[in-house]
Write a structure and sequence with these properties.
By secondary structure, the protein is an alpha/beta fold. The protein is built from three helices and ten strands. The protein has a six-stranded mixed beta sheet with strand order 5-4-3-6-7-8, sandwiched between helices. It has a four-stranded antiparallel beta sheet with strand order 1-2-10-9. Helix 1 crosses helix 2.
Length: 179
């Protein structure tokens, strides 16, 4: 599909599922090299958006690990609300663990900054951040991103876990808003 319509907006195909999978494999290779010797690292997937990225990434992680989910929300429609609501919390202690945050997209950095603050209270051994998509033009924080899949412009995109008011997460490709 070259175009999709979600609610009242039209989106055109921007990044293919093949390009996405290549980026996922590259991130997995880096993580495998960096933390393969850590004792049961914890992958912390941010729902809802990162479910596809997490699922694909885990297929290429070649060591034993733990996986947990947290649900945060900062978007309403096409723009960030600027506030974070923690909807589902952590389900086990992260003290002394290597933690890898898995994000679908990082734009302003508000969500990841909040999450780093929450996780830091658990005193992890180390904290790493992996994001499938990154909008460097929108990023306004000083938090280091350890693993980045694809750089994207500061445009609204959907697909591969990303949505517009609940629709579009199921598409394997990524689409950008047609202006």
């Amino acid at each position: 599909m070259t175009q999709i319509t979600l609610h009242d907006k039209v989106f055109s195909k921007y990044i293919s599922s093949g390009e996405i999978l290549d980026a996922v494999k590259n991130i997995a290779e880096c993580i495998n090299n960096d933390i393969k010797n850590e004792e049961l690292p914890v992958f912390l997937s941010i729902l809802n958006g990162s479910f596809m990225f997490t699922s694909d990434l885990m297929k290429y992680i070649n060591f034993d690990c733990l996986l947990s989910f947290i649900k945060l929300s900062s978007y309403d429609g096409l723009s960030s609300k600027g506030e974070i609501k923690e909807l589902i919390g952590l389900n086990f202690d992260l003290t002394g663990k290597t933690v890898v945050i898995l994000e679908d997209i990082i734009d302003t950095g508000v969500t990841v900054e909040h999450l780093v603050g929450v996780i830091s209270k658990y005193k992890p051994k180390q904290l790493k951040i992996a994001t499938m998509l990154f909008k460097p033009e929108a990023y306004a924080k000083d938090i280091k991103l350890d693993y980045t899949g694809i750089l994207v412009p500061n445009e609204f995109i959907v697909g591969y876990g990303l949505d517009y008011n609940g629709l579009g997460r199921n598409y394997p490709d990524i689409y950008k808003l047609v202006k």
